[in-house]
Specification:
Layout lengths: L1 H34 L2 H5 L12 E10 L3 H14 L3 E10 L2 E10 L4 H8 L4 E11 L1 H27 L3 H33 L1 E10 L12 H25 L1 H22 L3
Parallel strand pairs: 1-5
Antiparallel strand pairs: 1-4, 2-3, 3-5
Length: 271
């Protein structure tokens, strides 16, 4: 009996060890998998979560150039290379300058490269850059919109259950107010989103227009000859005007003189 009992106990011990090894092989891989999961890496200490930033860029650049037409062509080429486009443009010629003012929309990642490249087209007269981070503002507006839409939904449900006219009027006023606030918040968020999607750059460049060369001075005698010529020509014009006024008398005088001459010739001819 004892000889049969020992083999049974030995078999049970071996089976228990094998089951324990299997449990360990199941537990430890699961723990290893959990330690390498994205959730564990996201909450790991010392590793902050990355957040997309929404930044609004504004810039102004003024240049003095030597060749206006050449720079205009180069500006068009640079805008195409940097994925930018012209929003507004205004060209003038005044005060001895040929000027161009352009409002440019450019992707934020290309704002600084485009600004630096444009600055090489001429002599920089003025350069201003500003930026503002609206990430927190957009997040705040997004949370506000979520809260206001939930409030609008609650008021709409209460409005369906309202029974008295006073309660209906009060709830309708609250719904209208919440909807107006939602519209204003959406417009603000749209404005910030648009400004952060496209950076704005105002480019001004100008070329000085050379003044016309003055005519060489006239000699001292030339003005007197010119004045005498003008007086003589004025006299001729005055005589022509006078003859024009008395042309009937001239015609009558010439006709009468011709008739008188002919009558005299007839008197001198013998009969």
């Amino acid at each position: 009996m004892k000889h049969l009992l020992y083999p049974v106990l030995l078999g049970l011990a071996l089976a228990g060890c094998s089951q324990a090894e299997q449990e360990e092989s199941v537990i430890y891989p699961q723990a290893a998998a959990d330690s390498s999961s994205p959730l564990s890496s996201a909450v790991a200490p010392g590793r902050p979560a990355e957040t997309a930033r929404s930044i609004i860029y504004h810039g102004e650049l003024s240049l003095a150039v030597d060749n206006f037409e050449q720079v205009s062509g180069q500006v068009d080429r640079l805008l195409t290379e940097h994925g930018a486009f012209v929003s507004t443009a205004h060209e003038t010629r005044a005060d001895g300058q040929h000027r161009q003012e352009i409002t440019i929309k450019v992707p934020p990642t290309q704002f600084m490269p485009l600004l630096q490249t444009l600055g090489k087209l001429g002599r920089i007269e003025n350069k201003d850059i500003s930026s503002s981070d609206v990430t927190a503002d957009l997040l705040h507006v997004s949370n506000e919109l979520k809260t206001k839409r939930e409030a609008e939904s609650r008021y709409a449900q209460l409005l369906k259950q309202a029974k008295t006219p006073a309660e209906i009027q009060r709830l309708e006023a609250q719904v209208s107010q919440v909807r107006a606030e939602i519209t204003a918040s959406e417009a603000q968020a749209k404005t910030w989103t648009g400004q952060s999607t496209w950076a704005t750059l105002t480019l001004r460049y100008f070329q000085h227009i050379p003044a016309e060369e003055a005519a060489p001075p006239m000699p001292d005698a030339a003005p007197r000859f010119l004045a005498a010529f003008n007086r003589g020509w004025s006299l001729v014009v005055s005589v022509a005007v006078l003859l024009t006024n008395i042309w009937p008398l001239l015609v009558l005088g010439i006709g009468g003189s011709w008739l008188w001459r002919r009558w005299q010739l007839r008197q001198q001819t013998p009969a």
